[in-house]
Write a structure and sequence with these properties.
The chain is of the alpha/beta class. Helix 1 links the parallel strand 1 and strand 2. The N and C termini lie far apart (75 Å).
Length: 191
């Protein structure tokens, strides 16, 4: 008697679509009602409700099916941890249709190489993002969060405060900002 197949798919951003991964899982024989999804969660975030549900639903003799290893984990320790926990529970892991066999030295090496590449991809993406942000900042295109009040409004707020006729709460209401914003504007004006 063979166990049940349970599928897991994940995408990192809300703008991405899970259709292709869902189609792969269906093509690998996973029933629609046994596919668990995480949308808008990165693989480095171990707090993934869909993955938790998929892991909780598999029993000894079942198979957890993922389209690719990087959908399951984006770090070597996390991939090993998930893989080892499945092996301990006698649950097979299928990576795009290839069942991972932890007793086979080649299979074990292949799993670790895939996990290393998944982690490398994440590190490369982070590095490129930081480099891109540094270039944009140097060109003046990445300025951070824009102030709530224009320079003219800030000057007006400081003048109104200096008159002593308005409380911080009055100024916040008058300029439609929070009290914290009023304090920040006044602090910047002092320095």
């Amino acid at each position: 008697m063979t166990g049940l197949s349970t599928g897991y798919a994940r995408c990192s951003t809300d703008a991405q679509d899970l259709t292709a991964q869902r189609e792969i899982l269906l093509g690998l024989g996973v029933p629609e009602d046994r596919i668990y999804l995480d949308h808008g969660l990165t693989g480095t975030n171990r707090n993934r409700p869909g993955l938790d549900q998929a892991l909780a639903s598999v029993r000894a003799g079942d198979t957890l099916v993922v389209p690719k290893l990087d959908r399951l984990a984006r770090s070597v320790p996390d991939a090993r941890d998930i893989g080892d926990s499945l092996v301990a529970r006698d649950v097979r892991l299928s990576l795009g249709g290839t069942v991972y066999d932890p007793t086979d030295p080649m299979g074990k090496m292949f799993f670790n190489i895939l996990a290393t590449f998944a982690e490398f991809e994440v590190d490369l993406l982070r590095m490129r993002t930081r480099e891109g942000m540094a270039v944009a900042r140097a060109k003046g295109k990445l300025k951070g969060k824009q102030p709530k009040l224009s320079a003219r409004q800030q000057t007006h707020l400081v003048k109104e405060h200096a008159t002593g006729q308005h409380t911080i709460a009055d100024l916040a209401e008058l300029f439609s900002v929070s009290r914290a914003t009023v304090y920040r504007v006044l602090e910047r004006a002092r320095t």
